[in-house]
Amino acid sequence: MRIIAVMNQKGGVGKTTTSVNLAAGLAAQGRKVCLVDLDPQGHASLHVGEEAYNGTATIYDVFAGTRTFSQSKKLVDSNLWVIPSNIDLAAAEVELSGEDRKEFILKEAMESDPEVQSLDYVIFDCPPSLGVLTINALTAATEVFIPLQPHFLALQGLSKLFETTALVKRRLNRNLTVSGVVLCLYETGTRLAQDITDDLFNFLSQSDPGSPWSQAKIFDSRIRRNIKLAEAPSFGKPIFEYEPKCAGAIDYNNLSSEVIEQEAALNQSSPATSPSLPESSLSATPQFSPEMPEQSDLLLPESENDGDRISEAA
Ligand SMILES: Nc1ncnc2c1ncn2[C@@H]1O[C@H](COP(=O)(O)OP(=O)(O)OP(=O)(O)O)[C@@H](O)[C@H]1O
Ligand SMILES: [Mg+2]
Fold first, then answer.
1. Residue 238 counted as domain residue
2. Residue of 164 and 270 predicted with greater confidence
3. How far is 135 from 102, CA to CA, in rounded Å?
4. Is the pTM of this model over 0.90?
5. What are phi and psi of 40, to 5 degrees?
């Protein structure tokens, strides 16, 4: 099973559009997929036609411990389930603030639920922040996909995002890797989009082999700007149902195929043998932005880490 957090703290870069249409594309290619809406805005839920009213099972119930992961998921299409969210989830940020092991709630809910293993993919649509919901996604995930809009501010903030994955890998989830960058809202034929793609490619190819992003693939499938992708959410349908022949459907179908192609390589590299993160990799800050992140106060102090403790110097 692949557990993928679709994450970028920048807003409006295509996280939800990618989470929903990738989930639908993978389901259409025969994979059993659960899309988890981790954003209190509930956009991914609405995009697959689920409005979570009072009493609807949501991901909030999983955080509150009142429903299991499987009890909260709903079948919305063949092979495709969703765990929706609504504004209630915003309260979780506050309610969890004083809890022990708040970063592990989602991971533990999934691990203690035997039905989860029957899925091939779990896809988390993260909110545009690095708060406790995103940290839960990164702790439960095995992989991170970063949607990126290639304009000139796109790479700003990427160092913070990469460093957050490094911190989570060191302290909370040693198996975490950034395995893909999805170029969204891509303006075909523009010099700027190509320049930014080249910068990113150079950075990734020079990264420390121990960093979580050293194996990140910039997917060949670029998601072009396509008005049908912007229209589909208001009809509560993934793009394949809304307009199956449009450029957006073609791009997300290609992306889904590329993601499936990664499976063979991933099956070969067992997590137990994945390289641990050397301390030096924290200095491998992306050259395009000098900023270093402040350590999130959401990350447990080393001494409180679970039994599977990750050594600082490992
Ligand atoms: N390739 C595309 N072509 C046209 N419109 C797009 C494309 N991708 C996304 N959009 C539109 O851009 C807007 C932002 O996309 P989306 O909601 O996926 O971003 P997000 O990163 O999830 O945003 P947020 O940070 O608010 O969660 C939406 O209106 C969406 O429909
Ligand atoms: Mg979103």
1. yes
2. 164
3. 9
4. no
5. -60, -15
Span 160-172, average pLDDT: 92
Are 123 and 19 contacting, i.e. CB atoms less than 8 angstroms apart?
yes
Query: Cα of 87 to ligand 2 centre, how many Å?
Result: 13
**Residues framing ligand 1 (Cβ under 6 A):** 11-17, 39, 43, 128, 184-185, 223, 225-226, 229-230, 233
Domain total for the chain? 1
pLDDT at 294: 40
CATH of residue 171's domain is 3.40.50.300
Residues 6+ apart with CB under 8 A from 231: 242, 243
Q: Would you say 175 and 277 are in contact if contact means Cβ atoms under 8 Å apart? A: no
Closest CA to 32 of 85, 82, 100, 86: 82
pLDDT tens by residue, 68-121: 999 999 999 999 999 999 999 999 888 988 888 999 999 999 999 999 999 999
Cβ 10 vs Cβ 157: under 8 Å: yes
User: Which atom of ligand 1 lies closest to the CA of 127?
Assistant: 27
Q: What is the Cα–Cα distance from 15 to 37, expressed in whole angstroms? A: 11
- Report yes or no on 311 lying in a domain: no
What is the pLDDT at residue 61? 96
Residue 237: domain span: 2-304
Residue 151 lies in a domain: yes
In the block, tokens 């995002």 appear at: 161
Residue 218 lies in a domain: yes
Angle at 159 between CA 157 and CA 165, to 5 degrees: 110
pLDDT 10s digits, 180-211: 999 999 988 888 888 888 888 888 888 888 89
